[in-house]
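Fresh eyes needed here. Have a critical look at this protein's tokenised backbone.
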Amino acid sequence: MNQPIHTPNAPAAIGPYSQGVQCCNMVFVSGQLPFVPETGALLEGTVGEMTVQSMKNIEAILAEAGCTLKDVVKTTIFLKDLNDFAEVNAAYATFFPENPPARACVQVAKLPRDAKVEIEAIACKQG
């Protein structure tokens, strides 16, 4: 049975979807843009800072589901410009210092609200 995940510690969904969904021991986190949960505004700054905000949003949703980043088995990073890969990669790497999950990183034509980065994650709850 699918169980939607909602937390005030991450940005509210901007469409007809859940922040995340738990199905059995799997947690699927919807793509997270670099929105600041407290203001609902898109973070202004470098693409590295935006990556950090997207990852913090993922962390908050995982926490609501009883998971941590250590439970993440797969992520997908969507970039507006693949030339930002090195900066995004450096910021992303700080969240997975050991045993990083599988990952894909792709350039897309456009992201919602004209964001530069969006990250989604899949986690497997332990126990």
